Amino acid sequence: MSKMFFDLQDPALAAQFRGNQEAFLGKYPLDEGVKKAIRENDVPFLAARTNAYLLRYYFFTVGMKDDEFKRRLRDG
Asked: What pTM did the predictor assign?
């Protein structure tokens, strides 16, 4: 998951992810629980499993505003 989040720093890869999330997720060896958390933007689940910098960048990539990110992290 961290590798995928790192890769999303590349604008072309981020565009691929936004264009076809399922196909993009298929490129990485992620278990179904992780894929589900990514699909649902489950901030607490993902926060417990990756670097905070990569997590924030991922949510920036998917368009989640900071206030929403913080709320989900706090309320999770």
From this structure: 0.84
